[in-house]
């Protein structure tokens, strides 16, 4: 996600230290408090919201357990649950009977 554009091997991934150095400089210049690890959380949440199975997201993130993916990375809320239930027909009277 973070690619070297300025020196050395252009187009290659930045090192962990280089990313944190870049983020530190951006934080000081902009006053915006953020951490590059948040991108990982955002990616996971986005995948889950678009219907990617939690097992797939867990595997992509390299988690040993889907519990970690859901509890730590799946920043889903009540609105997400409502949309899922609505798509399943719970609020329209057309829910699938098991």
Draw up the topology in text.
Elements: H1 16-30, H2 37-49, H3 54-61, H4 66-73, H5 78-87
Helix pairs in contact: 2-3, 3-4
Short description:
By secondary structure, the protein is mainly α. Helix content is 55%, strand content 0%.
Poorly predicted parts = none
- Percent of residues in helical segments? 55-70%
Shape: elongated
What's the main sheet like?
none
How many beta-strand elements? 0
**Proportion of residues in β-strands:** under 5%
Q: What class do helices, strands and sheet pairing give?
A: mainly alpha
Give the number of domains. 2
Using the CA coordinates, give the radius of gyration.
19 Å
**Cα distance, first to last residue?**
43 Å
Helical stretch count?
Answer: 5
Mean pLDDT, to the nearest integer, reads: 85
SSE topology string:
HHHHH
């Amino acid at each position: 996600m973070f690619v070297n554009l300025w020196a050395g091997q252009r187009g290659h991934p930045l090192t962990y230290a280089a990313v944190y150095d870049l983020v530190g400089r951006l934080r000081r210049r902009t006053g915006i408090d953020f951490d590059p690890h948040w991108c990982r959380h955002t990616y996971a949440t986005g995948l889950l919201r678009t219907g990617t199975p939690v097992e797939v997201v867990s595997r992509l993130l390299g988690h040993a357990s889907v519990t970690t993916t859901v509890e730590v990375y799946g920043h889903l809320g009540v609105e997400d649950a409502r949309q899922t239930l609505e798509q399943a027909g719970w609020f329209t009277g057309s829910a699938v009977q098991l």
